[in-house]
Each structure stands twice: as structure tokens, then as C-alpha cells.
Specification:
Layout lengths: L2 E2 L1 H8 L3 H9 L16 E2 L1 H14 L4 H12 L5 H35 L10 H7 L7
Antiparallel strand pairs: 1-2
């Protein structure tokens, strides 16, 4: 079985050594025991696991959610429907984030439309809106 040092794992996976250590602390990848020379040797399977984590992050999953998905992938009693249900929950969360961003975008567009970009900054409606004393904002 091919073994790798943490530096080799970092290079081949495209993440930093500290990221690997962080994933170990978070329980996403196992920490191999130290060899007699004092350093750890990782199995080639760690690369697959790190790529799984990176793809999960790319799809918007948190590390906690990725850890749950990794657990599901190892659990014999779970079905693909369990994984699909988690993906649907993530999709709904993304939809909510998109809606919130659309509201923010609309508010910012209204503010920029109200700004003539003339005069001093003290007369800027964008700055006025940011500095407005709104009830419950204290």
C-alpha cells in the first residue's frame, strides 16, 4: 500500500498542510499514528476523502454536513433517499439565501438610483440610509 507524508497529501490534494490538520481535528479524516521516524504516513484513501470534502464544499455543504454525508456513505443501514433528503434541505437553504440576496440587491439598487453622485458625501443618500437611526437598531 502506498503511503504519503502530510506534505505529499497536501500537494496531491491541492490543500494546505494546516487544512489537513484542521480536517483531522474536525473528524473529517483520520489521524494516522506516528511512525518510528516521528512523522505520520497517510494511506492513499485520504486523497479521495479530501476530494470528497472539497466537492461537498463546492456544492455549498458545511463541514458538519459533509461529515454527516461521509457517515452516510459508510453506513450500511442508510439509503440513497437519506442522502437525497439532505440534498433537498441544502437546496431549500440555497433558495432562501438567493431570496435574501435578491432583497439586499433590490434595496441597494434603490439607494444607488436615488444617488445623483453630485455634491459632498455628507449629502449622499446611500450614506444617509446607512447612518439612519432606525427603531430596534440600537
Amino acid at each position: 500500500m502506498k503511503t504519503l507524508t502530510i506534505g505529499q497529501v497536501a500537494r496531491e490534494s491541492g490543500v494546505g498542510v494546516e487544512t489537513i490538520r484542521f480536517y483531522q481535528r474536525e473528524g473529517l479524516i483520520a489521524t494516522p499514528p506516528r511512525r518510528s521516524a516521528g512523522y505520520r504516513q497517510y494511506g492513499a484513501g485520504v486523497l479521495r476523502r479530501i476530494r470528497f470534502i472539497l466537492r461537498g464544499k463546492g456544492l455549498g455543504f458545511s463541514l458538519r454536513e459533509i461529515n454527516a454525508l461521509l457517515s452516510l456513505s459508510l453506513s450500511r443501514g442508510r439509503s440513497c433517499a437519506d442522502v437525497k433528503a439532505r440534498a433537498h434541505v441544502k437546496i431549500e437553504g440555497i433558495r432562501a439565501q438567493i431570496a435574501a440576496l435578491e432583497r439586499v440587491k433590490g434595496a441597494l439598487e434603490r439607494l444607488t438610483d436615488a444617488c445623483t453622485a453630485r455634491g459632498s458625501a455628507s449629502m449622499c443618500p446611500i450614506l444617509d440610509a446607512l447612518d439612519a437611526d432606525v427603531e430596534g437598531d440600537k
